[in-house]
Design a protein that fits this description.
Blueprint lengths: L2 E14 L2 E14 L3 E5 L6 H8 L7 E6 L2 E2 L5 H11 E4 L11 H10 L5 H15 L14 H13 L5 E5 L7 H17 L4 E4 L3 H4 L4 E6 L2 E7 L5 H15 L8
Parallel strand pairs: 3-8, 3-9, 6-7, 7-8
Antiparallel strand pairs: 1-2, 1-4, 4-5, 9-10
The chain binds adenosine-5'-diphosphate (ADP) and magnesium ion (MG).
Magnesium ion (MG) binds next to helix 1.
C-alpha cells in the first residue's frame, strides 16, 4: 500500500542556548492510505508538537515529513497554504467553528476558498451530512448546537475537501461519553467506507481503541506500537491500558 505520510528522523527543539527542550527526539514512522492511526502518550511527551509539525503549523528542527510524496518541510508561503487547503483536514479539541456562520456555511467555506461550484458544494455537503448525522443542524449556528454536533460539523468540514490526511488533536477532549461514541463511530465509518486516512492524537484509551494502530510516545520518542488486528475494540482497549500502565502514565488520566 502507498504511504500517505512518511515521517523521517524528525527532531524538534524549543528554546535557545542554555534553555533547550527536546520535544521530539528522532521519530520516524509511516502511515498508509486508509489507515486509522492513534498517537498516545503522557502529558508533555510531544504529541501536539508532532501533530503540529505534520500539520505544517510548526516546523521541525531536523528531518523530513512527506505527505503524498511532497516534502512539507521544504514548502513555504502560498505553496504551503494551498497544500494545507487541498491535502489536509483538521479536527481540533475545541471545534474551531466560526460563530457567525451556520453549520452549512462553516463546512462550505473549505470548498469556496478552493473555487468549487455551488452545486458541487451542495452535493458534497448533503453526502457528508448524511454520513455524520448532522442533516438537521445544517441551518443552525454553533451556539444552537451540542458539543457532539459541533464536532461532527467540524469533522464534515475536515473531510469535505477530500484531503489525503485527516489530523485530529484530542477530538473527544471536550465531549461527553455519548457524543464521543457517536463521533468515533463516524470516524470508523469515514475510515472504513471512504478510506479516509486518519491520524488522531489522544491521551484517552477509550478514544484510542477506535484506531487500528497506535503509536505510543514518551519523552519525544516512539516507545511502543500496538496493532488491533482481529481484536475486538474491548480487547484492544485492554491492551492499550496495559501499555499505558507500562508507560508510567497516570491511569486515572486515561480512562
Ligand atoms: P503533549 O501534547 O504530549 O502534552 P507537547 O507536544 O505539547 O506535549 O510538549 C512536548 C514538550 O515540549 C513539553 O516539554 C513542552 O513543555 C514543550 N513545548 C511544547 N511547546 C513548546 C513551546 N512552544 N515552547 C517551548 N516548549 C514547548
Ligand atoms: Mg497536547
Amino acid at each position: 500500500m502507498k504511504n500517505i505520510l512518511k515521517v523521517d528522523k524528525i527532531e524538534k527543539y524549543y528554546g535557545n542556548k542554555g534553555n533547550i527542550t527536546k520535544a521530539i527526539d528522532n521519530i520516524s514512522f509511516t502511515v498508509d492510505k486508509g489507515e486509522f492511526v492513534g498517537i498516545m502518550g503522557p502529558s508533555g511527551s510531544g504529541k501536539t508538537t508532532l501533530l503540529n509539525c505534520i500539520s505544517t503549523i510548526d516546523k521541525v528542527t531536523t528531518g523530513h515529513i512527506r505527505i503524498s510524496d511532497v516534502d512539507i518541510t521544504e514548502l513555504k508561503g502560498k505553496k504551503l497554504e494551498s497544500f494545507r487547503q487541498k491535502e489536509l483536514g483538521f479536527i481540533f479539541q475545541d471545534f474551531n467553528l466560526l460563530d457567525t456562520l451556520t453549520a452549512y456555511e462553516n463546512i462550505a467555506l473549505a470548498l469556496t476558498i478552493q473555487n468549487i461550484a455551488p452545486d458541487e458544494i451542495h452535493n458534497r455537503i448533503q453526502a457528508a451530512a448524511e454520513k455524520l448525522e448532522i442533516r438537521d443542524v445544517l441551518k443552525k449556528y454553533p451556539f444552537q448546537m451540542s458539543g457532539g454536533q459541533k464536532q461532527r460539523v467540524a469533522s464534515a468540514r475536515a473531510l469535505i475537501s477530500e484531503p489525503s490526511l485527516i489530523l485530529a488533536d484530542e477530538p473527544t477532549g471536550a465531549l461527553d461519553s455519548k457524543s464521543s461514541r457517536l463521533l468515533l463511530s463516524s470516524f470508523e465509518k469515514l475510515n472504513g467506507e471512504l478510506l479516509s486516512t486518519i491520524l488522531m492524537v489522544t491521551h484517552d484509551a477509550f478514544t484510542a481503541s477506535y484506531a487500528k494502530r497506535i503509536l505510543f510516545i514518551k519523552d519525544g520518542r516512539i516507545f511502543n506500537e500496538l496493532i488491533r488486528g482481529k481484536d475486538s475494540r474491548k480487547e484492544f482497549f485492554n491492551k492499550i491500558i496495559e501499555v499505558v500502565t507500562l508507560l508510567g502514565g497516570d491511569i486515572g488520566d486515561v480512562i
